[in-house]
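Journal club side-thread
Mid-discussion, someone asked how the predicted structure for our own chain would compare to the paper's figures. Pasting it here so we can look after the session.
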Amino acid sequence: MRIQRGRFELRPAGNTHPPAGGGKLMASPRAWVEVDLPALVRNANRAGPGPSLLPMIKADAYGLGAARVAGALTPLQPYAFGVATMEEGTALREAGVVGRIIVFFPSPNTESEALVSHRLDAAVLSVDALAALLPRSIRYGRRDGSWLHLEVDTGMGRGGLTLPQLEAVAPHLVDLPGRTGGDHGHIASMFTHLHSADSNRDAAKRQLDQFLRAAEIVTGAGLAKPLLHIGASHALKLGAHYHLDLVRPGICLYGGGPALESVVSVRARVLEVRELPPGSTVGYGASYTTTGRERIATLGMGYADGVPLEISNKGTFLLHGTRVPVRGRVCMDVTTVDVSRVPGVKPGDVATLLGRGSPDTAARAVGAEVRPARCGNDAAGGNAPGDATDEITLAELAGAAGTLEHKILTSLGLRLPRIYGGGPADG
């Protein structure tokens, strides 16, 4: 089921089931994820024009809902959508996605028939994979190479043909039927992965040079030139010469890496507020002890919902315009924060783990009380901006947890409903 209020649509995450006895999804969840789809579309537009886009929506669009993300991006007319597994591709087909879908990590020996029957394209990661896919594609009715995407290994070491392997194999691909029955063999695209696009420009340039040499090998053997792509999110900031024919935006779609707009907010309600005297311990392992009288609020999300365990005793949430510090160890279902400097906190109030602190329209969509944004003192005694301007970014949260931005998003738990909304998609 779904609950719609204004521009926001609330859906349960993943394959969640209603409570026993036929109960319905509560209109006012204890914690949730907000996804600003118009901002995501604007990030995609900045990555490149629609026909050159190959948006990566693997891992359920980094935990945000692949079908909904694909639906938002389809009007851009992307070249294809990228997923990791055959199951992800078939789920998109079942959700009504009709465009080209590329499975980047298929299992050719066991999934060829399913790939063909669901009209899914396949990445070719090795000579053995090519040998498995070609005869099966003919057997199952896909007689040309227009559904195959050849990976070249320029330094990742986890898949793809090396240049010597490509030199040996390319002449045999000439026999593949062309797109229009011409003389030249045809594969849809050829790609590689940069291993250090965000940290080592020299290494990226060496990989680019190797990849362009691989393209020369293929065309020199007599194949029609395939579409070329090397640029994932971090490569997009290296310059236009890394964009080639297609770009593969991933984390930058969702507000990470070189993205210009944040897309995701994660919020939780205050479940309990209690005043503790000096010397009180908080949480498992008693890892925090109060030094004075402190008001501790218990928030309705924990590490099972995606709060990184690593921010225990050092991370912050936003609450009523103020950054409030995590006190004690993050628990499976709840997290405790010090709200001593924030007057008037009570059960039902909304705290923000990720995103801008002001719940405004989104909070109203799930029945939360909305308070005016105001400035206040942060936990360290300085001034904190009001909710409307202060933000815990994906990079900040990942840094506090000592992990990747990708891991933050893909760790968001299935029991958090996703709310889809945002402002206009233009601009």
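Post-session note: Residues 1-8, 15-26, 360-365, 367-387 have pLDDT under 50 and may be disordered.
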